[in-house]
Amino acid sequence: MPSAEVDGVRCMWMRGGTSKGAFFLAEDLPADPTERDRLLLRIMGTPDPQQIDGIGGATSVTSKVAVVSASTDPDADVDYLFLQVGVDRPTVSDRQNCGNILAGVGPFAVERGLLATAGDRTTVRIRMVNSDSIAVATFPTPNGRPQYAGDARISGVPGSAAPISIAFRGTEGSVTGALFPTGRVVDEIDGVAVTCIDNGMPVVVLTAAALGRTGTETHEQLQADTALLERVDRIRCAAGELMGLGDVAASSVPKTMAVSPAVDGGHLRIQSFIPVTPHQAIGVLAAISAVTACRHPDSTTHDVARSWPVDSSTIDVEHPSGHMLLDVTAGMQEGIFTVQRSAVIRTARKLFDGTVFPTSTQSLPVPEETTHAAAP
C-alpha cells in the first residue's frame, strides 16, 4: 500500500437511501482488517463528536463505509462489506448490514468498472458479506452509465432521483442464524412483550404503547427522554443475550423498533432506535425485519397495523421523516411462518469521486470494536 497520508486513498462519497457513506474498492484499502479499520477511523475523523478532521458527518447515518470487490461467488457479481464507523468512539463494526448504503453499491460497481451495463437497465447481484446473503439491485443505465436523476422520491431525502429496486434473498437469520433467534415469537423483557427477529437485521420489536409512548413523539422529545432511552437500552441488551449476540452494550445491534398505529394513511408507524438514539428516518433492513415480525399473527405488534393489504404485498411504513414502501410477503404456510419476498425501492446519488487524505497516525486510538468478517 502507498502512504495514505501522502498519496491519499481513492474514495467515492455517495448518498444511499437516507444515509451517506464512503465507498471503496477492497484493493484500495489494507487487506488486514485491523489496519483497514485504523485507516477508516482516520478517514472519517473518529473519535470526535463532530468528526471535524475527517469526512464523517457527525451522525451514525453519515459515518458509514462500503467496501466493494468482484465476487468469487457464482451467485453474485460483487461483494459488499458494510462497516459502521463510530462517531465519538473509535469503533468499526461489521455486525450488521445496511440496506440504505446498499442502494449505492450497484452504481458504484459500474462506475469502478467491476461489471458492464446491460442496456437501459442493469441488474447487479450483490453478496452482502456481513450476512452472506444476496441482494439483487436493478437500476437505470442509459448510455452505459448509472443514471442518478429520476422521478423516484423517498422520505427523508429532498427532491427525486432514479429508482433502484432491491430484492433480498436468504436474509432470514442474517446475523443470528434464525428468523426468530430466541426460538420464540414473543419474549418478555423488563416487563414488556417483545418479538426478537432477524430478517436482514437483528431487531427487537415492541409496541410504542408498551413503552408508555404514542409513537408520534418528535425526535427532540425522544432524545430528551433519558428514562426512555435507558429503558430501551436495558431491553435491547437483554434481547441481545437472548438472541445469542452476547454482550451488545457497545454494539449497534440489535436495534429497537417501536410500532404504533399509522396516523398518515400508512399501514403502521415505526420509530427506530440506533442503538438507543432515536432515528430521524428508518433503516431498510431494520424496517423489513420489523414488518416481517408484524406479519406474524402471534407477534407483539401484529394487531397494531391499520389493516393488512389484501391484493398487494406493499406495506406503507410511516416513520419520523415520512413513508417507506416495502414489499414483504410473509405468512403461515402449513403451520410454518415463512418469508417469500423482501424488497424495497430506494435511490442513490454520487456526491463526489476522488482522493481522501486521512489524518496523521500520531495519537491514533485503538479501535474498541473491530470487524469479524474478512474483507471481500
TrEMBL record:
Keywords: Isomerase. Its EC number is 5.3.2.8. One of its GO terms (molecular function) is isomerase activity. Gene3D superfamilies: Diaminopimelate Epimerase, Chain A, domain 1. It holds the Pfam family PrpF. It comes from the Bacteria. Belongs to the PrpF family. NCBIfam families: OMA_tautomer (NF033377). PANTHER family: ACONITATE ISOMERASE-RELATED (PTHR43709), ISOMERASE YBHH-RELATED (PTHR43709:SF3). This is 4-oxalomesaconate tautomerase.
